[in-house]
Automatic annotation (TrEMBL):
The UniProt record lists the keyword NADP: no
A Pfam entry, by short name: Glycos_transf_1
Keywords tagged on the record: Membrane, Transmembrane, Transmembrane helix
Gene3D superfamilies: Glycogen Phosphorylase B
Organism: Litoribaculum gwangyangense
Key word Isomerase present: no
Taxonomic path: Bacteria, Pseudomonadati, Bacteroidota, Flavobacteriia, Flavobacteriales
Name used for this protein in its record: Glycosyltransferase family 4 protein
Domain (Glycosyltransferase subfamily 4-like N-terminal): residue spans on this chain: 17-181
Transmembrane segment boundaries: 83-102
Residue ranges of every copy of the Glycosyl transferase family domain listed in the record: 207-357
Amino acid sequence: MKEILIITNYFPPETGAASNRIFHLAEGLQKHNFKVSVVTPLPNYPTGRVFETYKGCFKASSTENNINVHRLWIYASNSKNKLLRLIAMLSYSFSLIWFFVWNKIPKTVIVQSPPLLVAFTSVLLLNSKKRKLILNVSDLWPIAGLELGALKKNLAYGFLEKIERFNYKNADLVLGQSEEILIHVNSIFPEKDTFLYRNYPDFNPTEIFETNQSKNKLKMVYAGLLGIAQGVYKLCQELDYSNIQLHIYGAGAEKNNIETLILNNPELDIIYHGEISRKELHQELITYDIAIIPLLNRIYGSVPSKIFEYARLGLPMIYFGGGEGENIIQKFQLGWIAKAGDYKDLNTVISKINTSNINKIYKKEIQKTAIDNFNFNTQLKSLIGIIQ
């Protein structure tokens, strides 16, 4: 049985796309006769506080779904203060160094990036001709940070670019969750081996049934991180509620602002449901007419995993983020697109949706498209063929 180690910043019981993606990868490899170990911080995302179960722990090891999980100490923080965020990343990097010193590391290692500093620590210390290092890139940093306004082009940015290049250069294989990521990597290192590894979900398709029989208003849902990048707070302010009712699930930095907005503006047809488990969320999502996937700014290299998850649920989408995600929606006819950042266009697109067309037949078509084209196991088998 071949051993493989996955180094990541996110893992269940943490919620969100990153956690789900790595869990499914680990579980999938385990089911294909790999002996899988995962190294991750003590759970703290998205609250920035170590979960109650793990408070007071320096480390915790367990076997979960036949996967060996090692949770290491981290100075947890989701503060907007850049220094505190840096300290949090460095603390996990130091814990990784301690782990590498005292544990035997397999010959195949998958390293999640970003965070760049954590990936750099892993690549720097584990780089060996006898070891295969696989860099799993889900977002392009520091470019994404620049587009989000979190970073500026200065000496610090140049330093992060050097780290990024070091990571790509010393990885034996780079996995990218979008074509744009692979294009970027190969523009720097043309000969680098790359593999498109999308964030496909792995769950049994749900039964499709009719929704919104009255068709008085379009029942639209947003589910996910309420962070700066998603811009859900601004979305709530800019939407025209004449023909829609917006339902929100999730948690994050904008949660309090959204709750205050709803409290102070009862005329806005918004219902906030809080955060629920992924299994519960799936049961809720299939009761809605349509989902919205917003990004405050178009982020090069980003393709929200919600596209593939919603498609498997048979849920039509409005995509409001530009880039490669927009192309996927159009190519596979998964819903509608609005110009990134143009709320007037978004409201126009929504107003033109014929609710009578959002029926069981249309939803089944979307689900079939997902089953045929966004298959987790087919993709995983292709990846295994490369890394074995």
